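This entry is passed on directly below:
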Amino acid sequence: MKTSFNREIAMDFLICLGRMITLRREVDGIPFREAAFTVAEAGNEHGFEHAVKEANKDLIVLAFKPGKERRGPANIAVYETYDGKVKTWPRCSVWVLSREGPALIVPKGADFGFAYHDAALCRVLEIPLDHRADRIKMARKILSLMPQIMACDPNPYVRVH
């Protein structure tokens, strides 16, 4: 028997991740592209290139294992439009510099991350690569707590310690 996908829980994580990666300051010199978020069952987060090109927007896809949505996304895929082409980052993780932030979506093996600002995806360059696994683990822990915190606090990320 196949476990059904709980879209409501997945959407809570999508909202929380959006808040975590939203920059609270202006960033100069980084190209901004309008972006959208969506959720999918794990394994179905691939193949959005055509839709991204048609919409002319970047896309962040949070993938969840059905029945295990409360654990948070199993994967994050980012589709970035640049110079009319779609670049796919199929294996990404949420990453934080510290418990207070900032949070980014970091492609596997990359030395940059993605943040969200003014409804657009932007690259944040030259992120520290030291302790990468620990910073991803910390970010996943923060993200896993966000839906419960969000229920009590309309802007939860600023108070997570």
Remarks:
- Residues 132-152 form the longest helix (21 residues).
- Confidence is low (pLDDT under 50) at residues 156-161.
